Structure formats: structure tokens, C-alpha cells
């Protein structure tokens, strides 16, 4: 759904209560034809990891900047951007 998503088995297990971290890791590994893996993070195949990190950092900064003195909790931002905490 989000081409800029950065996921880990741990983050998926937190979102899917019935799925263990090992089960999520198995699922992510089975999707190796669609996903690349670097620094413990899975992301869409073909996307440059450094550019992906920069884009997500910029996106998070812009959201925080717009929210001013009452920013949303960081974990909500990570979920909104589909990033691993």
C-alpha cells in the first residue's frame, strides 16, 4: 500500500496481535521477490535505502512542523508513515 514503508518482523507483530515475531519474519522472508532487506528493515524492492530513509525523515519533519506545539505522539507518526519504530 505504501511504497515508502519500512517494516520489521517486530513492528508487524506489534500491529498483528495474533502473529508472533517469528511468524512475521517468516512471512517477510517469503516475500523476498518483492522486498529488500537492509539494517534489519524490509522495504520495497528497487528503492534506494538511503533515499528512502531521507524521504521518510523529511516527511516526519514536515508533519511535526505543521503540528506546531502540540505534535502527535511519535508512535502514531510511525504508524501513519508505516515505519518501523
Keywords:
12% strand, 85 residues, single chain, 3 strands, three-stranded antiparallel beta sheet
What does this molecule look like?
It is a single chain. By secondary structure, this protein is mainly alpha-helical. The chain has one domain (6-81). Helix content is 52%, strand content 12%. It is built from four helices and three strands, in the order βααββαα. It has helices at 9-15, 21-30, 49-67, 74-81; strands at 6-7, 35-38, 41-44. It has a three-stranded antiparallel beta sheet with strand order 1-3-2. α1 (9-15) crosses α2. It is flat and about 40 Å long. The model has no long low-confidence stretch (mean pLDDT 86).
Span between termini? 18 Å
Mean pLDDT across every amino acid position:
86
Question: Can you count the beta strands?
Answer: 3
**Radius of gyration, Cα only, in angstroms?**
14 Å
Query: Can you tell me the number of structural domains?
Result: 1
Biggest sheet features: 3 strands, antiparallel
Helix content: 40-55%
Major beta sheet, strand line-up: 1-3-2
Gross geometry: flat
SSE pattern, N- to C-terminal: EHHEEHH
* Share of residues in strands: 5-15%
Please give the count of helices: 4
Structural class: mainly alpha
**Unreliable stretches:** none
Amino acid at each position: 500500500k505504501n511504497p515508502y514503508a519500512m517494516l520489521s518482523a517486530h513492528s508487524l507483530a506489534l500491529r498483528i496481535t495474533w502473529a508472533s515475531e517469528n511468524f512475521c519474519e517468516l512471512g517477510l522472508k517469503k516475500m523476498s521477490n518483492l522486498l529488500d532487506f537492509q539494517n534489519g528493515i524490509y522495504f520495497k524492492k528497487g528503492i534506494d535505502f538511503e533515499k528512502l530513509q531521507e524521504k521518510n525523515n523529511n516527511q516526519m519533519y514536515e508533519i511535526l512542523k505543521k503540528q506546531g506545539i502540540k505534535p502527535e505522539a511519535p508512535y502514531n507518526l510511525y504508524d501513519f508513515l508505516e515505519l518501523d519504530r
